[in-house]
Amino acid sequence: MMNSAFKVMDTCLWYLNNRFSRHMTGDCSLFKVFESKKGGNVTFGDGSKSQIKGKGTISLPRLLNISNVLYVEGLRVNLLSISQIYNQDFMVLLSKGKCLMLNESRKKLISTIL
Predict the structure, then answer these.
(1) Containing H/E element for 83?
(2) Domains contained in the chain, number
């Protein structure tokens, strides 16, 4: 399991995680583009579920736009899925104790200690 947090803004903490297959947030104010959605749940590791209320695009400094972010009612943390980041043409390099994310021009976007 890999779980590392990085601060995007003073009030906004995001966790990079390889256990979740989708980007998720419980903060609707972060969306640049938002589409309400009815139906669907997210199931967590402990078996609990939360409703998906919509999805959209968020804009994070240094990361440009992150699309297909789920709005999950009641979620208290912001999660970025490493596999979903990889599928959006970012390069994710993992090594012992470090995660590095690069854009398509190989410019460093995030470097974090695990």
Answers:
(1) helix 82-87
(2) 1
